[in-house]
Every structure is written in structure tokens, then in C-alpha cells.
Amino acid sequence: MFVLSFANRQKHVLLLFLFQLLVGIGIAQPPTKVKTQLNLDESQPVQNNINNNGNINNNQNNSNIPRKDSLGFEHRDNAKDSINIYYRFADSTRKITLDSSVNDFDSYFSIPSSFAYLGNNGAAAVSLLYRPNLITGFDPGFHAYDIYRLTPDKIKYYKTNKPFTMLAYQLASGKEQLLRATHTQNPRPNLNFGFDFNLITAPGFFVTQNTNHSNVDIFAAYEGNRKRYRAQFAFLHNSIRASENGGIQNDSDLKDPNRKDRFSVPVNLGNNAAFRTNPFITSILTGNSYTDQTFLIRQSYDFGKKDSVAINDSTTEYLFYPKFRWQHTFTYSTHQYGFQDVFADSATYSNWYGLPLTGNNDTLSIQQRWTKLNNDLSLIQFPDTRNTAQYLSAGITTQQIAGELQSGNLRFYNILAHGAYCNRTRNKLWDINLSGEFYLNGNNAGDYLIQASLSRWVNKKWGLFKVHLENVNRTPSFVFDSRSDFYFGNARKFDKENCISFGASTVNKLFTLSVTNSLVANQVYFHNLKDADQYAPLFNVLQVQFSKKIQLSKYWKWYVDASFQQTDGAAPVRVPLIFTRNRIAYEGVFFKNLHLSTGLEVRYYSPYKAYGYSPLNGQWVSQDAAIVRNIPDMSAYMHFRIRGFKGFLRAENLNTMSFSDGFGFTNNNFAAPSYPTQGFIFRFGVQWWYVN
């Protein structure tokens, strides 16, 4: 593990802080004004919302303070530097604005705080909060790295009056790096295009733990001059490369004073001679390599009422109020999953997976490739021509699925029907969403998904109330099928899984509270590294989440996030009873444009029988042999924003500090049995917003 003495650490912190300060001062761009809009709707201000990672987020954006800039006798026109920008997701009419707050690092890091991950940024991760699997249809079943992937439903389609660029970079102990870039522009009012790029490289603190992930998406949206024709285009590529060491051989090695350098701790997979600390080496000698590409194009044409407004003698603004829409979506995707170990130990793979290898250091390689082609035709009707947020849709989708396995090739097809009714009233008080899909024929015939929600905005004080219901009936993922190259247990037939999840939530100025109850039947799971099983009895998962910002004084604030989860003891679901995250922060706006948030962050979850991890097939495994008991994770941080520049300084995992056998950060917590988390990490990050 990377450990610094007090003197060296102070020097590094001072140098990084000075560098950050110089960068912030040296920015020559004028102040960027972002037109603020509301998260939940365009008329009612709400302080809290649910972020994209699924966590309760009660952060408040700092207020924009009017300011005057001058240089000599020349006065700047701030209107020339302002930008009006928002984005929508593909299947939503809701406008969302950029988040300028700096008090929650979850918005800037690749792994949400509600996840446990195997000791390295980019490693396999699992949520500590229960999330039902709502994937219907064909699913290969590899989800341990989903939080690092881009998917079509995550692509943001922007609209901006000026070209916008965001660049972000993070550097942390152990040569860990994170890079993000976004650019979007509207060369014409009816045409937008842009791209997103993300990169994670981390050699890790233990042997055979390096990760290298990259993903990119290119998107474009076009609207005809008469506002009847629309098109959306997206291409995305994900590359997941993660070494797997199978965990450490003995937990006691962490207390060995001769193994403070964690690269000397023996692990179960990989080979010490193959270890490399260069973060730019992307090859994986022992581990998983997943890649996928998706090409999507959606076209629609509206029928309805035409109108126009004369701007001046030579300019006319065309308006159109749709009554009926024809929409076609074409999607083509490829997914490749692979595992290899060039230094495979025959005894280990024989004991763990029952795989016979010809030699003691034979090479093990497993590959599986899937292609999926979707054609969807939808018809959408708008009862109120002046409210496009109220509509009724119905459609049918055909799927062609082909698999290239080492055991042979497979071909499937599916035909599914889907429909939806959405009504966000024009007074922005009610929001109704009903949707469903049903697989009529094919490999996944009988799968279905029903989702319903009803929300009501009350007022500024009481905020938003919402009730929801989800019911999914799904075929188990293909990784549980004996035909899969990644299934090594006894062949058996599994029934469809079923889950009913329902609950209510309230979001207001005082607090955020949600209560969800899930009823699950026929849960399919791995009960060891290779054998799958099905838990047929109906079991219950109760989840209560609470979030609140407490104003301790003018500048001191306490952010509380707490979750309670209860399930049947015999059920294969593994979640802690209590999960909480607390931030004591000193926050405010200083010197007119310095938005500062600094303080202490503590995360804790109660002891529980955490999931084990199977490296060969990338699956989380229910186990009863070990209980993970961790002390609270503790971090000190300083985040700030000056105009379009953001800076982050963080000292993470302070809880690993130990004075036994000399000072060091050797008191590691565990993410899963045999998988210790990182020791002390110093993280430095910056982010710029550019308006061209």
C-alpha cells in the first residue's frame, strides 16, 4: 500500500494545493452565467431530488450572486458571457439543468457512496442498497461493472445557445487517474450534437488489481424547420478491463509489519512476476475484458396543428402543436465478454470451478459474444395539443439475438408489445406515469414489466409527494443457463423470477423520506463460485430511506443520509440492516464568487453477510460463511467553485490509520470476504466549464 511519512505527505499536500490555487487564479475566461431552471418542474422550486445514481440527494445549488466586472474604464457586458443550457434524456420531455453545486462528491466520482467495490476504482461493485432487477427480455447477466458503463438511456441530448465544454481530471494515490470530457453545441437552433468521454486507469494497491475503463458516446438531435420531423442519433462504446486476483490468501497478512507494502500480500489469482504499476498499460493478464457498442437512430413525424409567429418583416417562427406522432427506433448492439488467465493455476481452477487444465501454468481463455438488433414502431397520441407532456403511446418491437459461444452458436428472437400513458398537467401540480411491456412470443415469451407512479406538487413548504409500483416477471439471465460458457455448475431449469415493488416518498425543504417494500419470488442466485440455485418462497425486502440537511449555524451544515433495510434471514439477498452517510460541512459563498464546502464525511454500514465474488464469471455470490464488520469510512475534504472552475482536495480512508508496529494506514476495511479496500488515499481533482 502507498504510505507517506508525515513530512512527505505535508509537502505533497502543500504542492498540490499551491498548484490548484495557481490554476484557479490563472483562469482567464470571463464568468459563466448558467440560466438556472428547476429540477422537478419549471415552476415550483424543490430543494431535494433523487440523483442519477439512485441515491437520495438533498443538496442545494448555491445562489448566483450578481457581480460587476471591470477593467479600467471598459465595462463588460455579462449578457455576452451568459449561457442558456439544458438537456433531456431520450424518453423524457423534462428539462434538466447542469449541477453547479460542490458539496457532494458523488456527482464527480465514478462510484456512488452507496456501493461497495473490490478495493480499486474500476473494480467490480455492488450496491449496499437493495435494487430490484427490472431487466426483462434477454440478458447475458454480467452486471458487476454496470456503474462504469454508458447506456442509451444515460445519454443527454442538450440544447444550448453557445458551444459548451466540460473537462475534469482526478489524480489519486497509487497512480489512479480519472478523466472526463463533454462537448456540445447547437450550430443551428434546431440541431445539437456533442460527445462524452470517460477514462479510468488505476494500477491498484494489491497484486493483479489494475483496471482500465474507457467509454465514449456521440450524440445528435435534429428538429425540422416546421417542427414536424425529429431525429435522434447516438453511438456509444464501452471498454471494461479489470484484473482479478481472487482476493488475498490470508487476512492475517494485512497485519504483518513486513507487508505494509500491499503488493507483497499473496493473492489467489495472477502472478507476482507479471505485476506492473504503469497506469498506461491496458493489457489484462488475469481478469475480465468486456466491450460493447450500440448504434441508435430514432425518427418521428408529427401530425397536428400548424401555427406561426412573425418575428419581423423577414423572419417567421414556425410553431406546431402535435396531435399524433409516428416514431421508429432502430438499435443495433454488440456485447463481448471475456476472461483470461495467462498464468492459470490448475489446482485453483479445479477446486473453485471444477475446470481441468492440462498444465500447472496453462492459459485459460473464455469468450462469449452477443449481437442484438431491435426495430420498434410506436404510435403516440397527444390529447391536449398544447401539452406534449400528456400523451398515450403504443408500439411493438422485434428483436433478433445471436450468440457466438465456444460451445456453439445460438439464435433467438423476441416480439414484445409496449404502451404508456403520461400526463404532466399544465399547472405542473400532477404527474402521472403508467407504462408496461409484454413479450408476446420468442425466447422470453411471458416476460413483462409494469411501472406506475403518481406525484403531486403541494407547495414550496411541503414539496412533492409520490407513490409508485413496479412489477417484473423475467427469464433468469443467460449466465444461469447451462449453455453459457460461464456456467460451470450442474445443468438445471429455472422458473421465471417475479418481483413486486411499491412505496411512497416525499421530497420537501425539511427532509426527504421514502418507504419501499419489495416482494420477491423465484430468486435465482449463485450460492458458491460456480453453482446456481433458485429460492422459490416469497420473501420481503423493506427499505426506508431518509435524508435531511441540518443548518447548525450560518455556515456549518450537517447532511444526513440514512437507510434501514430488512429481509428474511433465509433469502439470498445480502444488504446491511443500517446504512448511513454523514457530512459535516462548512459551506458558503465568500469573496463574492468563491463557493466553498469543506468538512468531514463519514460512511458506515452495519455488519452483514456480504456477497462474495466469483472472478471467472464476474458474479456476486450469496454466502453464509463470513460476516463483514467494518469501522466507519472517514474522509476529510475541501471542494470549491470559482466561476466555471471547480477544485477538489480529499484525504480518504483516514480510518485505516494504525500505530501498531509503527505508523501506517494498514487497518483496511473489507468490501467482501477476502477483498480488502484501499488504505489512505489523497485525491486531487479539477473541473472546468468553458463557454466558447
CATH class: Mainly Beta
> Major beta sheet, specifics?
22 strands, antiparallel, barrel
Quickly count the helices: 3
Mean pLDDT: 86
Task: Describe the model.
With 692 residues, the protein is mainly beta. It has one domain: Maltoporin, Chain A (Beta Barrel), CATH 2.40.170. Helices cover 5% and strands 51% of the residues. The chain contains three helices and 40 strands. A hairpin with a 2-residue loop joins strand 4 and strand 5. The chain is globular and about 85 Å long.
Summed up:
The protein is mostly beta strands and 692 residues long.
Topology record:
Elements (H helix, E strand, L loop, with lengths): L5 H21 L6 E2 L14 E2 L5 E2 L12 E2 L2 E2 L2 H4 E2 L1 E4 L26 E3 L7 E3 L29 E4 L3 E9 L3 E13 L2 E12 L8 E13 L5 E15 L42 E25 L5 E30 H8 L7 E21 L8 E16 L2 E17 L5 E13 L5 E10 L6 E11 L22 E11 L4 E10 L1 E4 L5 E4 L3 E13 L4 E12 L10 E13 L3 E12 L6 E3 L4 E3 L11 E10 L2 E8 L4 E2 L5 E2 L4 E3 L2 E2 L4 E11 L1
Summary tags:
Maltoporin, Chain A, two-stranded parallel ribbon, 3 helices, 692 residues, mainly beta, 22-stranded antiparallel β-barrel
